[in-house]
Amino acid sequence: MTDSQATDNKNPTATRQAFIFDLDGTLIDNVYQHVLAWREALEQGGIHLAVWRIHRQIGMSGGLFVNALARETGHTCSPEEAERIHEVHGEAFKRYASEIRPLPGASELLAYLTEANVPWAIATSGMLKSASLSLRLLGLGDDVPVITRDQVRHSKPDPHLFLAAAE
Q1: In this structure, are residues 28 and 126 in contact, taking their beta carbons and an 8 Å threshold?
Q2: pTM to 2 decimal places
Q3: In sequence order, what E strands does 22-154 have?
Q4: 74 lies in which domain range?
């Protein structure tokens, strides 16, 4: 959860508190499902790692993630291989979908902030296609500001996601 300043629309010089939330592991309990799906995809791509090595990289965008893990093992990955690893991850992650839940209190917190007129947004390094399940589980409508990896030039650790969400 990141705290940022938002400009008040009525008084452009005034500021008020706003929140930017990450999705995976912050609002949604799905980190281990991602780890297992990445392990499956990486192994199919010829990259064999212990799950703890994969877990510590969770939160990066998929492209940075695959490159970082490939570098760690000395494996070189062509853009086509990296794309295939992403596809296999997506397929594997779908199989774990029934195990994914919002973290306790996440939906209630977002509802409370909305009722209290506190601005908030979600910024995730996941693509909209993969984030849509999590957003549905939170019961969020289409009016919620969500910034996904496919909407910005660079993802975490670069600040583009968070800057776009703050707008």
Answers
A1: no
A2: 0.75
A3: 28-29, 101-102, 120-123, 146-147
A4: 31-98
